[in-house]
Amino acid sequence: MYPTTKQPKVLLLEGEQRSGSMISVLTRAEFEVIQAQDPDEAWATLEAREDVDVLLADIDIPRLMDSVELGQYVHDRWPGLGLVLTSDQVRHLRPDEVPGDGCFLPHPIPADTLLKEIRLAVRRH
C-alpha cells in the first residue's frame, strides 16, 4: 500500500475502552501502532523514537497535562509530526485550537474518516 518499505507508525494515546478498536482499524490498514497510557508516556516515547509519524491522542484522558497541551508541546518540538486529536466529551475544537496542521475528530469516528485523516497526517510528515 505504501511505496516504501517503511510502515507508518502511529503513537496512540487513547482511553482503554476505545484503544482495541482503534488498534484494529489501524493495523488492518498497515500502520504500526505504538501505545501510550498517558501524555507523559507519549512524550517519553516521542523523545526516545525518531520513527513516529503521527500522534493520535484522546483529549479526554485525565492527567496533569491534557492532550491539547501535549499536542502544542509536540508541535513546538516536532513541527512536522502529524497530529490527530479525538474526544468523546468535546463536541468540537476549532481548527485554530488544534496545533499545527493537526485535526480534531469527535467520537464516534467512522473507520474511513480516521484512516483518511491519519494518511493525510502521514503525508504531511
Describe the structure.
The structure is a single chain. Helices cover 38% and strands 20% of the residues. It has helices at residues 16-28, 39-48, 67-77, 111-124, and strands spanning 9-13, 32-36, 54-58, 82-87, 103-106. Helix 3 links the parallel strand 3 (54-58) and strand 4 (82-87). The two termini are 17 Å apart.
Provide keyphrases for this structure.
globular; 125 residues; five-stranded parallel β-sheet
How are the elements arranged and paired?
Elements: E1 9-13, H1 16-28, E2 32-36, H2 39-48, E3 54-58, H3 67-77, E4 82-87, E5 103-106, H4 111-124
Summarize this, please?
The protein has 125 residues and is an alpha/beta fold. The chain is built from 4 helices and 5 strands.
Estimated structural class: alpha/beta
Seen as an oligomer or otherwise, the chain set is single chain
Shape annotation: globular
Taking pLDDT < 50 over at least 5 consecutive residues as the criterion, the unreliable ranges are: none
Order of helices and strands: EHEHEHEEH
Q: Give the percentage of residues in beta strands.
A: 15-25%
Percentage of helical residues? 25-40%
Supply the number of helical segments: 4
Distance between the termini: 17 Å
Question: Could you tell me the mean pLDDT?
Answer: 88
User: How many strand segments?
Assistant: 5
**Tell me about the biggest sheet?**
5 strands, parallel
Give the radius of gyration: 13 Å
Largest sheet, order of strands side by side? 2-1-3-4-5
